[in-house]
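Input chain follows. Return structure tokens only.
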Amino acid sequence: MFFTCILLFLHIGAKANGFYQSDTLKNKVGIDTIKSPKIDSLKTDTLKKNSKKGEITDVIKAVASDSSFYDTKNNVMYLYGNARITYGEKQVDAGFIKVDYKTNTIFAKGKTDTLGRFSGLPIFKDPQQGTLTADSVYYNFKTSKGRIYQVYTEQDGGYITGGKIKKQANDEVHLKNVVYSTCDLPSPHQHFGIVITKGIATKNQIVTGPAYMVIEDVPIPLIIPFGFFPKPNKRASGIILPQVGEDATLGFFLRDFGYYIGLNDYWDMTLKGGVYSKGSYETNVASRYTKRYKYSGNVFLSYSSRKFGVEGTPEYEHPTKDFRIQWSHSQNANAHPGSNFSASVNASTSGAFRNVPGSSYQQIVQNQIGSSISYSKTFANTPFSLSTALNHSQDLSSGRVSLGLPALNFSMTTINPFDSKDRIGEQKWYQRIAIGYSLQANNQINTVDSLLFRKKTLSQVQSGIQHNIPISLSSQILKYFQFSQSLNYTERWYFQTIRKNYIARPTPTGTRDSSAIDTIPGFRRAADYSLGGSLSTKIYGIVKFKKGKITAIRHVLTPNIGFSYRPDFGKPSFNYYDSVQVDQTGRRQAYSIFEQGLYGGPGSGKSAAITFGVDNNIELKVKSSKDTTNNGIKKIPILQGLSLNGSYNFVADSLKLSQLGFSGRTFFTEKLGVSFSGNLDPYEFLVQRINGQDVGRTINRYRWQDGKLPRLTNFNFSFDYSLNSSTLGKNNKANNPPNPNSDLFNRVNAQQAEQLQQINRNANAFVDFNIPWNLSFYYNFNYSNNGLSKSIVQTLNANGDFNLTPKWKVQFNTGYDFANSAISLTSFSIYRDLHCWDMSIRWIPFGPYQSYSVDLRVKASILQDLKLSKRREYYNQF
């Protein structure tokens, strides 16, 4: 309850009977402890009591930054300026503190400076009870009685201010004229507040006299003559009141009603549901769990049945059923050193977000979702590690689902088996030989979501194991060249293979050639290997300028050449390939019996190829008075990673030269990035007209033999640019510290902050009003040419936000598809910071997902259900 912080003194008095006790104090302080009656500099006085019953046993520290004075005659200590008294984990700060050891009292208050400004309010801190602030405090540490004036404290996002509080010796707290509101200011706005004229708070209950509501400082004639509120010290279960309204498509509704179950301090559960007058319904279960220093997580399950249209129509008689499963689990890194278990599950039907009211813009437009439940372990003092995972990926647009049940990885980091731990001097060539090992195993199902749990689908599991052993050796030649050699061995284990059979299917216009694929059970292994080597170096070039701002242009050229060899594993002696008839003429075509395996199979055709490539890096060096870390010289990149790569296979029958791939990227500033890539085909492409259709193929003739440049088969260009007010320098409010009076997260403990982050309904918590504006653009251009047709895809996306006023924030997200001449899904969001309240407006103005929502709610987490909402979902079109 919100009075927990007020009971701070209950906790102090019950354990120690006050800060000091008179008899013991006289034995410890006296003239021997404080030599000087006045201390002008910072001084700390440390006291400790005997461990007798009822006496203080923790160390008491008294500190004052201005001065401290001890009146030995009256046995009184005075602390001035940033005064602090610390007792164990508890702490009292104030501008002035007076400790009277004769009357066993402590008095703390603020102070007024020469300009009449009041500062140094008493602040009480307790790690278990929280923080309490007041104008002044009078407390008897022997009788455990005290009075607090103009209190200010926070609990669960609610704030108690003003009035007078009197603490009794019997652990009771008397309240008078205090205000409970959602505003964190010392003088609250009182957009919503409750004035408690009189009340008594005990350990387990609160009893109040007359109380009335205040809105915008105006008393509302709604008076409660008395009240009785239980104050449990643990989570309490209770009913969640529903939302009542009308949906244009589904009818009148009672939505989000249910029951909250506080199972214990480590686990809770929320059950919610909704019903609609036209026959639709929904239900969901949400649960959170945590164990300090061990693990934490949450689970969400939902199911809905929605009837669209009117009674008698197919849409109404066959309702749309959707489900969604989410599970997140994280383990503390120190819980089990060397091993980790984590889970991130997100699975649903394709319409789970589109058909559910309140889905966000990001949820509606997403096409891919995935899940992973994984366990990993590193074996101490060994190079071995093990990981296993259950994986899931889903395409919401097509309904395709892929499940890994489960995936296993066992690996050994690269070791030097011929090297010695006691070696002295440089490594010999054979000591640089490095060997690694990895094992991958998986069971996978590929299907659509509607067929996922059928018996036939579950029987079509693909299984496989793959071993990989890389062996490498690197050395330096002539000081400037890096030479490396490698041998890679791969072996795959399968429990089934395929066989293809030719089938001639009669049709009204003739016979259509097709093939049937049979699955052959049985264990089969497929092994292959390859050899390779590469040689690379770096060439530096620089042009210097004596005049002007540009001092030099630097070019780094990184050429590389290599050789690779792989045998022809398509030979009959390996028994990895078979052939099948493809037409009525008897023509046959080879195929791999492992082509449907998880890891494929060995490739056919012998390869003995030279690989070549070159990489470029070009940058400017300019004079800069702002950059003093490099003698006033700033580096500006012009091109980063401009590369060209290809290969030439000497033993291929034709088309020995591969396509030439090129790519490049650059970042002119931290806010502007440009990248491009593409492929060039050096061979001619022949197009023929067969049976009224264009058929094309690549022929073994270089284009430059006919005076032509290589054909551009694909090209991709993209850039992204972002700009905000912080990049302009002068009005950079993003680097200023946030105002603690308006920052909700700074006023709650770690557990409450974590809970608030999980409540995405509080939109204002995720809006940064300290940055006046922010803009970002992403442009993508893609060109492809397969020889028969060309296509261009060109899109521009933009998003940003800006402050209309210091309290109004507008966000937008939009884009344009140039190929289809259409605007992509566009949304606007407007946020209004009302300090202790916030207002959010979400609007999708056009397109298939037109909708809007307006929400006005309290920021306080304890009053999240206190809100006004108006919304129209995208399927509620009038």
